[in-house]
Structure to design on (523 residues):
């Protein structure tokens, strides 16, 4: 599978980080990956949030994390745990980058230069600390571990066990089952999270998309130029709004808007992607695809919200972060990873609204929320349909088939538990009735912000961690022919064999501990 990161890979990396935190020993992750696994849809995309949330806890506890990037390390893996080591070490001439040439060609019709995404390029641009040949890697990591101490006496966050299905409000989808079963539940209005939102809003069961033309029609509606964007929604629902500009590092990205606002008397910080309503504005706003400075501007606004105790409302409408050479030069993968990690630990409520397209890590970078809302005709996916088609079929002409396969619709995402609330469309949709769409959305936002405001901050952060920790969790079965002694698992025995001296947790070492509590879903 090209070393891609699906739910199981994300779970293993997360467990490795949690084990390093509990045992207070350094974590080393060696990456060799084509990115997030498109075949698992947004559950694969959510692994970016899950792994980064675990690493943020490790960072806060003062436990070293070394990231080793080998050939290749690309896509969602590079835009998550691979790019945020306390020290990043790469092998010489390794292919390392956010978007491959076929994705760039399929998304922005631009080819990447020959030899562009290599270790030495990233080293020159400041995203790699060391370039080390494989034969010298052991000595390099040993020396780094000697020089990076584990911080003593930290305040450890609680150990989190993935919750059982009954505690989550939705039933997770096994990759061995069909999403048609969950769509059937939605059509039947099966309980909270299965067609009916916590505040009583619901989607129209008769409007659920069928595979084929109907799914592609929703993708086209999500991209409709008349659809309201972040600034249009803010103008319709906010009492006051002052836009802020610049990331204080490089520049101001017009594809990302941030600002201070009041919503029904409540002060909030707004972050959102902004497409244009016509060709000229789309060019100025880069068709809503942020560069790294756009995500760093968003982080600046979110940190401002945390300092002053203001909730954050994010509006997601992006086909994906900009995948061109200039974005790679300025660190698009690192900025996405940092933004996801920041949101996982931000000490203030976060509500996310998918208003149009929610594409890949470019969307998730501002979509790690306590509550995730989607407009009925919005879509959410691990990669754009064109990017997926460019990889699997080597032509963007198969984008419609890719859209169907990735289960992009709001109903599908609610069935998976990625989205909490779907806002029913008025009439023909948001593009036809923007004022009524904004009115419906405002009522839900006011309701959810009030509910989140009543939660103690530590409970809020714990629930946010559990939310993403549970997406793609799995249970273990014992390895045939291996007997684990009582109280100690195979992973413990393997670690004893591998570690006569200084200990470090490796993500490539599986744990088969009988004492581990079961996770909620076998996939």
């Amino acid at each position: 599978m090209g070393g891609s990161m699906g739910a199981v890979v994300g779970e293993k990396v997360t467990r490795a980080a949690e084990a390093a935190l509990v045992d207070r020993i350094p974590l080393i992750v060696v990456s060799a990956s084509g990115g997030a696994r498109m075949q698992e849809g947004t559950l694969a995309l959510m692994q970016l949030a899950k792994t980064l949330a675990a690493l943020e806890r490790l960072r806060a506890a003062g436990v070293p994390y070394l990231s080793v990037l080998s050939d290749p390390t690309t896509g969602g893996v590079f835009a998550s745990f691979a790019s945020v080591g306390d020290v990043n070490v790469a092998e010489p001439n390794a292919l390392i980058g956010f978007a491959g040439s076929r994705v760039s060609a399929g998304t922005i019709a631009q080819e990447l230069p020959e030899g562009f995404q290599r270790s030495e390029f990233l080293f020159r641009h400041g995203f790699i600390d060391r370039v080390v040949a494989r034969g010298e890697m052991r000595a390099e990591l040993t020396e780094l571990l000697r020089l990076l101490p584990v911080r003593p006496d930290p305040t450890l966050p609680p150990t989190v066990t993935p919750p059982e299905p009954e505690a989550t409000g939705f039933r997770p989808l096994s990759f061995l089952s069909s999403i048609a079963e969950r769509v059937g539940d939605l059509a039947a209005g099966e309980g909270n999270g299965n067609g009916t939102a916590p505040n009583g809003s619901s989607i129209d069961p008769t409007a659920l998309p069928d595979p084929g033309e109907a799914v592609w029609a929703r993708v086209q509606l999500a991209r409709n130029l008349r659809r309201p964007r972040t600034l249009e929604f803010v103008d319709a629902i906010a009492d006051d709004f002052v836009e802020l500009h610049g990331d204080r590092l490089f520049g101001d990205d017009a594809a990302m808007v941030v600002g201070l606002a009041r919503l029904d008397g409540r002060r909030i910080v707004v972050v959102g992607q902004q497409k244009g309503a016509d060709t000229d504005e789309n060019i100025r706003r880069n068709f809503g695809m942020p560069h790294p400075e756009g995500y760093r501007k968003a982080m600046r606004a979110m940190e401002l919200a945390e300092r002053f105790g203001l909730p954050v409302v994010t509006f997601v409408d992006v086909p994906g972060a900009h995948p061109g050479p200039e974005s790679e030069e300025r660190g698009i993968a690192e900025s996405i990873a940092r933004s996801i990690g920041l949101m996982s630990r931000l000490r203030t409520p976060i509500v996310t609204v998918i208003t149009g397209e929610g594409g890949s890590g470019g969307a998730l970078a501002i979509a790690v929320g306590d509550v995730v809302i989607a407009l009925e005709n919005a879509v959410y996916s691990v990669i754009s349909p064109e990017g997926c088609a460019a990889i699997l079929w080597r032509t963007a002409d198969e984008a419609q088939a890719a859209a169907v396969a990735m289960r992009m619709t709001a109903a599908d995402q609610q069935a998976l538990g990625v989205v909490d609330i779907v806002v029913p469309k008025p009439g023909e949709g948001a593009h036809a009735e923007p004022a009524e769409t904004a009115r419906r959305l405002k009522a839900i936002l006011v309701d959810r912000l009030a509910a989140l405001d009543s939660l103690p901050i530590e409970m809020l952060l714990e629930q946010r961690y559990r939310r993403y920790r549970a997406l793609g969790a799995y249970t273990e079965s014992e390895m045939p022919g291996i007997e684990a002694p009582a109280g100690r698992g195979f992973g413990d025995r393997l670690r004893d064999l591998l570690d006569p001296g200084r200990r470090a947790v490796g993500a490539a070492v599986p744990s088969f501990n009988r004492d581990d509590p079961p996770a909620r879903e076998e996939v």
Observations:
- The two ends are 16 Å apart (CA to CA).
- Residues 186 and 511 are 36 Å apart (CA to CA).
- The chain has 20 helices and 14 strands.
